[in-house]
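hiii, so i know i said id send this last week but things got crazy w the move. better late than never?? heres the sequnce for the chain we talked about at the cafe, plus the structure i predicted for it. fair warning i was half asleep when i ran it
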Amino acid sequence: MKLSSSILAVAATLSVANAFPHMLRDLGLDNMGEFKKVVRRDGPDALRNMGKRAGVGLPTSIPLPALPIPGLNLPGLIDIPGILTVGTKIIPDAAHPFQEPGPGDQRGGCPGLNIMSNYGYMPRNGITSAGDIVYGCVEMLGYSVDLALVLVALAIRAGAMDLTTLKMSIGTKDSRTDGPLSLVLGSVPGLFDIQAHNRYEIDGSMAYDDEYFHKGVGNAGGFFNGTRFAKLQAFADANGGLYTLDTIGQHRQAAYQECIATNPTCTWNVVGQILFYGADGYTYLGMSSTDPATGMISPPDSKSVQTFFGVQKSGNTFIKTAEKLPPGPDGHWYRRSTPLTTAEIAGDAVTTYASYPTDFGSNNGQAVNTFTPSTTQLSGTGAGAFCIGKSIFQRSPPSQPS
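okay and structure toks below
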């Protein structure tokens, strides 16, 4: 099966640009018409080159699309709590030392969000805002602004961000996110609460149990599965000890088979899974330190990925520790030399899926091995890839929470 990763990348970038028009200026363009003209003329290479320029003229605030709710004065801007920079840089700086999470601090199943809180690039208590996410992703992890905004949009899609405070918990529900609507509707769920299952957290994680096995309690870092991570590590070992595109694809294919065979409620939906193919790709697109002399990311070796994930070997399995940045040869971790863009990560997601495809669908909720494919599958045509890509990102604009 051959899928058009470039078409998915175009669809993803188009949809985010529609939701956040300022992104076009970051790409050096004046309007959506100019964007479409460049894409039609130059194709995917032009899109990737534009993506590398994202971050020039970095914003201090980002306008939000209007969301008219009578009687509520909703925020009109995402305020970014610091100066954003791009390019190779030692992370952390002196103002952001590592600290273990303390009692009452929220952590979840996303190592990227956890590590930003561990170093204080997002609030250390794990109660973060949309602006904090953008700041941490760009300044610490080397994301482009457009990719950081995708994460904000996905949190809103999951119903995990309070629209009056623009705050969310990176773990489970927490009253520290509350705004005016909370008195009526209650606190929003955390990203790893049961309410966000199959909307943010999904079946087939690299390192955490499926929701079914902890019976609706939520998966906020308390259900780490060392045996599952050991299986991931075995794929890395078979690929020279590296977390490559093949490592990720082989693991996702195996996780799919395990889900069907062990989880009666196994759900393998196209939107969530393709997003996870992209998220898992960060293991080789940014977890290892960049070589400051060449600007190239160091090989994604097992030690680096395990350090970033916050896991360590214990006998035949792995145990959970706090997420840390893996130092390079000189003892420092260096950020990417160019920002990681939506186009890059979307392209890699579809390339990985095309190499290790699965069906999308679910078990019947009562018994294992009852998997029924859904009517939505990725076709091998460019049109099919474009429709799926557009669907993924148009289901999560900030103006349409669900």
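btw The radius of gyration is 20 Å. thought thatd interest u
miss u guys!!
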